[in-house]
């Protein structure tokens, strides 16, 4: 019990501290692949610190909703990221919130962000919010179908049970799981506003989505939103790692050495998935906005197919 | 703690008295309706009527809650001798009635508080106030009825009273049309329910519910299911019988809209559950298939229609259609599980459905009350003429936002819990032995997930274009916050939405009696779970702790705020909006409700609504205006209702000639009819 709480506390701090580093590392790798030197891997920390120290400028007609939204987004994303077993299973909160809750918490964050985009009443904010909600209307069901597939497979919606089931002997190569993995990766790319869905590096471009919503934010508010965005990336990478590559994760009640092994394994997984993500991004061009729904529908259909295959292959 | 409170209240009120209290409550409501005719013209009079309704409904909530939580209560039905000619009226609170009576009267009590402040704005109170208590009383009669006669009489009074309220503002043609469509649909629905009860009663004609349950002999379940789906489904708003709902609900005064959408549709759900789960015996496995298909179509089409809408109250009405779909998904799953003998899974699906009934009655009433406050402040229902109301009406905006979060199924509010329970029920369904439901259920799950995500998009649109941004019309810029009664009622509903989301275990436990009655099983007691979490089947399988999620969000946000306050710069400056350096001075350049929905319209609407956009651009150098034309089709209305209307019109035209015959021709017609009938009777023998 005490150990669960300790693990949970470490996890809460870990996702907070590690998230900007993951963003920094992916940016660095991307720059190297493009034959640029790129900023230091610690640049995201510096950016956040810089923003925190700056004065916050908000629009004349910004409401209380605009000023509270960064805190809501940060808190819900942080909580969602802390619910995923990263380096060790047996988190104190894992009995309180399953993977459906994690998806829904991200939904809460998105809901508030889209509202904040509409608060000032500018056309950029509106374009970002409406497109973000259109993407979400396909990405969220696709994500839930992935959740269905994985939960049916493991007989549980708790991530710790799923992770434990995946390391167990009953798992081989499975077509449903493969479909779910592809769907999850597509959803992760869309949700984190990566190429080919959105470009995290651009500004002032009519295809932008996420950046358009946060255009009016500055200073400490922007710092919180940037930190939340990097935590979301960490969350999705951890989710893929936790479900599909659960090896090395420390089981509850192990000794200290096992925890260090778990941490090391987690760091390796982050690096590997970050590298794969960047490789994919550099190899592909950005899509037109109205191609994205088709891209996401592929995820939805794959998820549905995976779930249906599991439903009919279970003989009671 | 709940048990102790119940114990105390029962020691005060003996169980057998509960039915009497409920019956007296209905009687008082009917007396109030009569009294209202006399006093409603004075503002104090209508305030008194609404206040009295709130008090009576609160008493009914208390009685129903005792009946729900106390085992064995409500055994002896109250017999009222002044019943319908062929029988007597039986009223009682069995667990199902009690659960719905709590839901209906709780919401009605709060809406009545709102009406104390809001109802005095009515232009012609004598057309609203007397029908309001009658409407509430009729809904209670339907819930309390233990025989088909009083059920149907209550149902008809409910339809007629709400019809009178719909046409209370009959100056606009659209309201009159809504009244006609509603009347036709309500008559048809009541007719099918009458037939359903007729079949259930059998040749002996035992019209009490007890007699129907015992008449186990000949029951054509398929016909009863179809009649119940049409009768109760048309009242609840199942597609394609929903057509009256988005016309009628917004036409009524806002507090009545809240009751019609939040409460009356729940009475219809009660009717369906009573007939299909309770009275028509054990279900066959295929019963779930039509229910699930209709429910999934209802859920997705309801939200898509809502997304295309820019009238705030009609948008909310379409969302009622969507939520009825979600409720019926739960009911369909419960039927499938019950027929195949998985009693616990059936209890889970049933409780998910009834929990959603409870939730929807809270947040939909809240949203309609908010829309009513906006309507009386701006005089507008069109969201294209609103904007920026969060500055003018901050408390209304806050309460409305809570309702939006709840209906979008986002944690930690209540809408999420019932959807989570429905998802858990879906995840139980691979154990079903039949192939068709196993193929169908994942598709239903995908539809449910899709409609939840679209609902979030729709409420970003609704809240965003109503309360956020800059005012699009002078009326929105000059809006004033609504009165204190209304604000109090909305905040109370918002608090209940949060409370039911944070402590769902109490709701699930109190519904145990219902699932025992209907499917013969109950979920494990959630109050035994540590940390107030809920784990419907097994903690290792799935668990949710609303309290922990809520408190963690609050703690994390508070901690962040503290740290930011301690370490970050305190500088805060107001400046003109940045907008990439080119801020537009005119508020018409901001995103409106229909431009917000444009991407979704393009993705989903091109098939469902045959949405076509046509842009006319002036040639280069021409300073004329560009034009964007949008064509949307209500495909369901055009495919299903228009042919019927055309047929009736043509038939009426053809038959019109019979009005202008000579007396000889009439006599000839009568003679011919007589001969025809005699021939028929002769050949019959």
Protein described:
- The complex is a heterodimer of chains A (316) and B (685).
- Chain A is mostly helical and 316 residues long.
- In chain A, 70% of the residues lie in helices and 1% in strands.
- Chain A has eleven helices and one strand.
- Chain A has helices at residues 2-33, 43-53, 64-82, 99-119, 123-154, 159-167, 175-191, 210-213, 219-244, 256-283, 292-313, and one strand at 56-59.
- The mean pLDDT of chain A is 89.
- Chain B has 685 residues and is mainly alpha-helical.
- Chain B has 27 helices and five strands.
- Chain B has helices at 2-12, 15-39, 43-69, 95-118, 131-144, 148-166, 173-201, 209-214, 221-236, 245-251, 254-279, 288-308, 312-339, 343-378, 389-392, 394-407, 414-427, 435-467, 474-477, 484-502, 504-510, 512-519, 546-567, 593-596, 598-608, 635-656, 663-684; strands at 78-80, 89-91, 572-575, 612-616, 627-631.
- Chain B has a two-stranded antiparallel sheet.
- The N and C termini of chain B lie far apart (71 Å).
- Chains A and B meet through strand 1, helix 3, helix 4, helix 5 and helix 9 of A and helix 16, helix 17, helix 18, helix 23 and strand 3 of B.
- Strand 1 (56-59) of chain A pairs parallel with strand 3 (572-575) of chain B.
- Annotation field: number of helices of chain A: 11
Cα(first) to Cα(last) distance of chain B is: 71 Å
Tell me the strand percentage band of chain A: under 5%
Shape, per Cα inertia axes of chain A? globular
Q: How many E strands of chain A?
A: 1
Return residue spans of chain B where pLDDT drops below 50 for at least 5 consecutive residues. Answer: 1-12
Terminal CA distance of chain A = 36 Å
Task: Write out the strand line-up for the largest beta sheet of chain B, numbering strands in chain order.
Answer: 1-2
Structural class of chain A: mainly alpha
| Count of strand segments of chain B | 5
Instruction: Tell me the major beta sheet of chain A.
Output: none
